[in-house]
Automatic annotation (TrEMBL):
This is DUF1266 domain-containing protein. It comes from the Bacteria. Pfam families: DUF1266. Residues 61-229 form the DUF1266 domain. InterPro entries: DUF1266. It comes from Methylobacterium indicum.
Length: 266
């Protein structure tokens, strides 16, 4: 894979600091897929560059997500906001950590037998079990939120590029996503490490390349959004109130942990 230069967020489209910070959540996924990190705000005046982004976004959504319209996109973004892979991965780690010695060996032997027969699901599960046993990548204490968050930010971006989502819908979704990430991690490198372990668990194999080099680029390159935008969600007067559910027909990121102030009258 080539190494495209970083393109910083267009000032015209991202004057709001909270939205700029929220959009940086998807930088690792954008870089992996060789998308520019910025996003033209006006499709009518962005010309040929924007049309190229539309073609790539359409192909990515269809190939990786089987998404062809707004309804499919909203459903996928809602799933990431509600559950994603993080819930299953957290439960899996807890379940393996709680297995007694005999139960561990019996399950490991069963998975190994199926893996030898070519069962890919068993091979992935066997890898995850061994990863928990060795605490590979610090998976026992992993949050598993970052992989879902990065993909959610990427879906929001592509949905806007294709005209499936309005900028207001993208902004509302990313605001809630960004607030949860800000409450869950201490820094961009902390977020990046959780992304890598989440991606590894999803794949059922630790693929060090190309993720480790990408994380280093995001941590060190001067034009990286992670270097130019401080970690930590900066609230402003336009921030939405915390929501635990949303009945609109647009995408919704359901906050798992609301701020104390928002729970005061619960």
């Amino acid at each position: 894979m080539s190494e495209p230069p970083f393109l910083y967020l267009d000032d015209a489209g991202y004057r709001s600091e909270p939205l700029r910070w929220a959009y940086a959540l998807g930088a690792c996924y954008n870089l992996y897929h060789e998308y520019p990190v910025d996003l033209p705000v006006d499709p009518e005046t962005a010309g040929r560059r924007f049309r190229g982004q539309r073609d790539r976004a359409e192909g990515w959504l269809r190939r990786d997500w089987s998404i062809e319209d707004r309804a499919g996109l909203v459903a996928a973004m809602g799933w990431l906001g509600r559950d994603g892979h993080r819930r299953d991965h957290r439960a899996l780690v807890r379940r393996y950590c709680a297995l007694p010695g005999r139960g561990w060996h019996e399950r490991e032997a069963m998975l190994a037998e199926h893996a030898r027969e070519g069962n890919e699901a068993a091979q992935a599960q066997l890898w995850r079990m061994g990863a928990v046993g060795r605490d590979l990548l610090g998976c026992r204490a992993a949050n598993f939120l970052a992989f879902d968050a990065a993909r959610a930010a990427q879906l929001a971006r592509n949905g806007y590029v294709l005209g499936f989502l309005s900028l207001d819908e993208v902004r509302a979704y990313l605001f809630d996503l960004a607030r949860e990430v800000s409450a869950s991690f201490a820094s961009w490198p902390d977020y990046g490490r959780d992304f890598v372990v989440g991606r590894a668990f999803w794949a059922g194999a630790h693929e060090a390349e190309p993720w480790d080099p990408l994380m280093r680029r995001l941590d060190t390159e001067i034009d990286s959004p992670w270097r130019r935008i401080l970690f930590g969600f900066p609230e402003d007067e336009t921030s939405r109130g915390v929501t635990s559910a949303d009945t609109r027909d647009g995408p919704c990121w359901t906050l798992e942990t609301a701020p104390v102030a928002a729970r005061a009258d619960a």
